[in-house]
Design brief:
globular, 267 residues, 3 helices
């Protein structure tokens, strides 16, 4: 009995030690993160993006919750970027991943299949990184050619991942957009079009050209910042002399804890 108890103690301690090791990282290089978070079976270097991709097999739940086509048993994931920032007295890192179908990587080069985004949040303590939150795949709700990411503060304790999508083309329309994801639960809390225009590929005779430009102003209110969206719309026609209509208007958005996102203010 004595030996049995000793064995159980050692076995339980071993399990606890093993489970803790899974969440601790000495560094945040792409091989370590991809292998640990996505259980990759192999790695490959993409010749065009020059990023290392990890091959992994999604389970049934991950396949059903993915927007990717399911004709392949494997997915490929790239580590897009890691951003470091200071939150209170802690050093924090956010890793951004892009997942695509193993048999079709056309989205990387202008295809129509939307990639899946993944996020992992790490906090540094005693020269080690501990993972505090991870979302393997979620739909970013945008078709992204090559987005850029930054971290911004939207309140006393609300940090967001800002995703800026470069110019996109939809049937003759130019679109540039920005999305913000809360680093508390990785949900989208605000988005807007920075730039929008129609009739950009071909302008027909006597047809008006419409463009809209937006910019935001952050008002540092408590406990959450207020967003003021300034919209400028211009309508012009090169075939009509002295024809130009310009309007500027502002819209205020406030953070709603109930909705967990920014909503249009009624006043």
């Amino acid at each position: 009995m004595k030996y049995t108890i000793t064995f159980l103690i050692l076995f339980t301690s071993g399990l606890n030690g093993f489970s803790q090791v899974k969440f601790i990282y000495t560094d945040l290089n792409s091989d370590t993160i991809l292998n640990r978070l996505y259980d990759c079976v192999s790695f490959d270097l993409d010749s065009q993006t020059l990023k290392k991709s990890g091959l992994w097999k999604p389970n049934l739940s991950e396949q059903l919750n993915s927007s990717l086509d399911h004709y392949s048993d494997f997915f490929m994931t790239q580590l897009d970027t890691i951003l470091y920032f200071q939150k209170a007295k802690s050093k924090v890192a956010i890793a951004v991943f892009t997942t695509y179908n193993y048999e079709d990587s056309t989205f990387l080069y202008g295809g129509e299949i939307r990639p899946m985004k993944g996020l992992a949040l790490f906090t540094k303590a005693e020269n080690q990184w501990a993972i505090t939150k991870f979302k393997k795949m979620f739909n970013s709700s945008e078709y992204d050619f090559d987005p850029t990411y930054t971290v911004e503060k939207f309140g006393e304790d609300l940090y967001c991942l800002k995703q800026e999508n470069v110019q996109e083309f939809y049937g003759g329309h130019d679109i540039e957009s920005t999305l913000y994801f809360s680093l508390t639960d990785f949900s989208e809390i605000f988005s807007y079009l920075r730039y929008y225009s129609d009739n950009t590929t071909e302008v027909f005779e006597n047809e008006d050209i419409y463009t809209q430009r937006n910019k935001i102003k952050i008002l540092k209110t408590k406990p959450y910042y207020t967003i003021e969206l300034v919209t400028t719309t211009i309508k012009e026609n090169p075939n009509k002399p002295n024809f130009k209509k310009k309007k500027i208007y502002k819209t205020t958005y406030r953070f709603s804890p109930q909705n967990n996102r920014y909503v249009k203010s009624s006043h």
